[in-house]
């Protein structure tokens, strides 16, 4: 599973 | 950014504005849990550590600053403001909030997306946010006269969590790489905690009577 580590939510 | 996310952020913003409005204009924090507010201040401090390191968008930066500033302002009002602090219902706000911080930190150390300081703090903040509403819900149960602003504050806060779930469902189908198990599971737990409140809130709204939560 690819994990988008860029937390772009608040 | 999709419409669910924007609507979620806006209801979150509205909840904070409602609470500040009550505290600043009515000079009362009756029915508001200082424990929950302190937990939120800690949540935002831990999560937005990346504020000056990791730039997402102007929108994100401004919102992060707003949530940080508002949460610490609310805590300041409740602890230090000479009129507001007297309206704080300390006797009923007894949830031992310190005891949920450590388990969340341990969980953050064990379950994170990457074992780095920022990622551990991020996971910690997600777990802590999931349970931060508990002292407020307990206080509401013990409050005889829940005023409309307090009820609306909790309602908007819960609505924000529901909208974030719709946002994740939407993102899951539109962004194939968007998978955040930690925030999803913690977010669902957090939303479920509002279930009881929502039930009685909608009931009181439908019957046009004052909100009261059974103990």
UniProtKB/TrEMBL annotation, chain B:
Membrane-crossing residue ranges in chain numbering: 55-78, 99-115, 121-140, 152-170, 182-202
Compartments reported by the entry: Endoplasmic reticulum membrane
Membrane-topology descriptor: Multi-pass membrane protein
PROSITE patterns: ER_LUMEN_RECEPTOR_1, ER_LUMEN_RECEPTOR_2
UniProt record, GO biological process: protein retention in ER lumen; protein transport; vesicle-mediated transport
Chief location: endoplasmic reticulum
Gene Ontology, cellular component aspect: endoplasmic reticulum membrane
Keywords: Endoplasmic reticulum, ER-Golgi transport, Membrane, Protein transport, Receptor, Transmembrane, Transmembrane helix, Transport
Domain of life: Eukaryota
Family under the similarity heading: Belongs to the ERD2 family.
Protein name: ER lumen protein-retaining receptor
